[in-house]
Design goal:
single chain, 2 domains, 5 helices, about 0% strand
């Protein structure tokens, strides 16, 4: 943990989260064919980002008191670029292969990048999470997300 970097990051994420909350209020509150408006997700995402950045800022002061020694930690660029690349591909292919499949693949890659092994456990968690969120948003909240691709015959 680099305290200085984490403090600057916390302030930057606080600003971004606040911007999300403010700007999401300017988005229309309903979408065609959906009971959940397009302003809901960025609003709550901004709130979560603000709360997590406050927590990170608090943790930097708590960490500073508990470990005064300065340790240099090596950054893991390989993992960063794998997850960054998979996030870009996730956004690019979501319309083509649907929310459930793209989220499943993204989560599986992320889980395996962060903690190699136990692929079946990672696949099970990714499947439950991706389909569970799809079901919650589309069936219960009556929102819209890209469904399954038409070539699967599940649409």
């Amino acid at each position: 943990m680099n305290r200085t970097f984490d403090r600057y990051g916390a302030v930057a994420f606080l600003a971004i989260g606040t911007l999300f909350v403010i700007e999401s209020r300017k988005i229309t509150t309903s979408a065609y064919g959906s009971n959940v408006g397009s302003d809901i997700f960025p609003f709550y995402l901004g709130i979560i980002l603000v709360l997590l950045s406050i927590r990170l800022f608090y943790e930097t002061f708590r960490y500073a008191k508990s470990k005064p020694g300065k340790e240099k930690e090596k950054l893991d660029y390989k993992r960063f670029f794998i997850i960054f690349g998979s996030a870009v591909l996730y956004a690019y292919f979501m319309e083509d292969i649907g929310y459930v499949i793209s989220t499943f693949v993204f989560l599986l890659i992320g889980f395996q990048t962060m903690n190699r092994g136990k692929i079946w456990v990672s696949a099970l968690i990714a499947a439950i999470f991706s389909y569970g969120l799809y079901y919650l948003f589309v069936e219960i909240l009556k929102g819209t997300l890209p469904g399954f691709p038409s070539w699967l015959g599940l649409s």
